[in-house]
Specification:
With 306 residues, this protein is an all-alpha fold. It is built from eleven helices and no strands. It is globular and about 70 Å long.
């Protein structure tokens, strides 16, 4: 059995990696165009809330499940209801409502809460000390899907609040958080549980862009569209230039006769220039000979006259 400190370190590192992966995607796509400082500050509050939530859920739900102790009935409903209310109170703060950043703030809050939940569950999975392919796969899936799933739920909560549906958002968060917690705990004992959870998360991932887009202010949306348009035109121009170069190269390879005729013309031109140069040299030599002969004749005539 591994030491508790080593297990805690491994669980913490894996959970942090999962939180980092959860930030990639829609949050990096719109980075710089939403209230990023508030989102980052929610990471801290999410770690505190997730630590409290994960500890209570581990103490009253997960450990009784592992030890077959039974535990208290309906404990998960009470804990998830308290969680949804706290999330609603955090997202309705004046600082968040003033910038309209409830969806992005909810995403950051959900990442940290889900990461802390994943840390507790990963610790319990590795606690027996039996490392296998199934346990490694379970740890990896929990590290990735727990932060991502809670981020999607809380982001949807913020989007509903932005649309004015406050009580509906709280009820949705309560139901979805309860289901996600049940799925995560059930996956420890049977990995086939992920078959039902992963498709739902993938479908929610597609809608998350619209939720985060709602948190981007209108002037920033116009600027972002302009940037995307300029980038697409630049990419299309580069692609057209590459296409033209490839087409020219392909045409030159596909028409060897034209290349051969061009080479023959060049060769004939070179030969003609060499022949012209030779004729010029011959003419120059003949002129030199004529000049020398005339000089000799003149000198002989002068000698005879003397």
């Amino acid at each position: 059995m591994a030491s508790e400190l080593a297990l805690f370190q491994v669980a913490s590192i894996v959970a942090l990696v999962g939180m980092g992966l959860g930030w990639r995607g829609v949050m990096t796509r719109y980075s710089g165009f939403y209230d990023l400082p508030t989102a980052w500050s929610m990471m801290f509050w999410g770690i505190l809330l997730g630590g409290f939530y994960g500890n209570i859920a581990d103490e009253f739900i997960l450990r009784p499940l592992i030890s077959n102790d039974g535990g208290f009935p309906f404990t998960n409903f009470v804990i998830c209801l308290i969680l949804s209310v706290i999330v609603h109170l955090i997202l309705r703060r004046e600082k968040v409502r003033r910038t309209g950043s409830q969806p992005t703030t909810g995403w950051a809050l959900g990442l940290s809460v889900g990461g802390m939940i994943g840390m507790y569950v990963i610790y319990r999975v590795l606690e027996p000390g039996h490392i296998s392919v199934a346990s490694i796969a379970t740890v990896a899936l929990i590290a990735i899907l727990s932060p991502r799933g809670h981020a999607l739920i809380f982001c949807r909560h913020g989007y509903d609040m932005l649309m004015g549906q406050r009580w509906k958002a709280t009820l949705k968060t309560f139901v979805l958080s309860t289901l996600l917690l049940i799925v995560i705990y059930a996956a420890i004992f049977d990995m086939r549980t992920w078959i039902f959870a992963i498709p739902i998360l993938l479908l929610a991932e597609r809608k998350a862009e619209g939720w985060v887009w709602a948190a981007v202010p209108r002037p920033a949306r116009r600027r972002l569209r302009r940037i995307w348009s300029d980038a697409s035109r630049t990419i299309s121009t580069d692609e057209q230039l590459e296409f033209d170069a490839a087409k020219a190269e392909l045409d030159s390879e596909s028409n060897p006769e034209e290349m051969n005729s061009l080479l023959e013309d060049t060769h004939n031109t070179d030969n003609k220039e060499s022949v012209d140069q030779k004729s010029v040299n011959i003419t120059y030599n003949i002129q030199n000979i004529d000049i020398k002969d005339s000089v000799l004749v003149d000198s002989n005539i002068s000698t005879e006259s003397e």
